[in-house]
Amino acid sequence: MTDDTRWLSTGELQAWMRLEAVAELLPAALDHQLQRDADLTHFDYLVLAKLSEAPDRTLRMTALASSTNATLPRLSHVAARLEARGYLRRTRSATDRRATLATLTEEGWAKVVATAPTHVAEVRRLVVDRLTAEQIEQLDAIALAVLGALDPDNRLQARTPVADPTDGCGNAAVAS
Fold it and tell me: In the CATH scheme, what is the code of domain 25-150?
């Protein structure tokens, strides 16, 4: 029996271990900031942000689950909590009674708008401002390449080009 394993080189192993550490540490850091400043988890904020970016601030629960990489039971639990706080409303679809729609309320929109500046500041502090413009381009290219394997169907819509936030569409304050 031969060993056909393609072991990582020292440089590959180092890069992998560093990526793995970022993947472990970044979500907790973002969670901490959002809990402290907005009494939201990072996932709560992601749900609200996805709704804020949707047409009429409404998505089917299945589409919202897909775009946030959540199971329907997890999303339903979080939606119930956000609904109790007045940030979203769930209703049956008028066109498909089997579907449930999640709609961001005015209170939810206000929460996103109020939360976005400190969240963006933390994203800048932890990641963006630590990189050069060239490194940002490299990070984008690297993430896009890896997402090709992790999300080939683009469920999270992270492989879709982002619109210029300064184009006047009103979403400049929203960042997930």
Answer: 1.10.10.10
